[in-house]
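Transmembrane protein 175: structure, please.
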Amino acid sequence: MEEAGGGPEAQYERLALDTALSTLLAVLLYVAVKVSVDRLRHWRARVSVLIVGAGPVGLTAALVAVRSGKVLKLTLLDERYRAALLCRPQQIALQPRSVRFLLALGVDFDNMEGCWDNEHFFTRIGVFQEHLLSILEQQKYRQEIRILLGTKASTRLPAVRAAAAGTLRVALALPGD
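Here you go.
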């Protein structure tokens, strides 16, 4: 005699189907919660960054910050105007380790005025700064980046202090670096 719900095989099939559906629902719920929590952590981990000084070190710091993916807003200040930055005639020599580091950040030495000698790259500081500024300006469309050349940090000091009270991280690159 068979029961109203069918035989034992039909009951086992329904039980197996219910178990599979329950497991699938639990896994999907877990994945949705995990992804949401990870996005929230990533969003909360983002910080505002202020860099004072647009020399080679300051611009490299800005590029590292932007490429980290942790920057909500980046502000770069330098009291020199762009023309004063880019006409610097001093030479810079980048050793192989620095070149590898900068290549990983997206610096394209093949499209930069300069020369190679024994795995070292030689160029003018102004050319190097112009290249890094162009990379940062390309990132402006994806992230909030403000490049304020011709702006003394002391004129922005009240805003800097107010922001520092929050979640601002300050990186200093002294003029002439």
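Notes: Residues 8-45 form the longest helix (38 residues).
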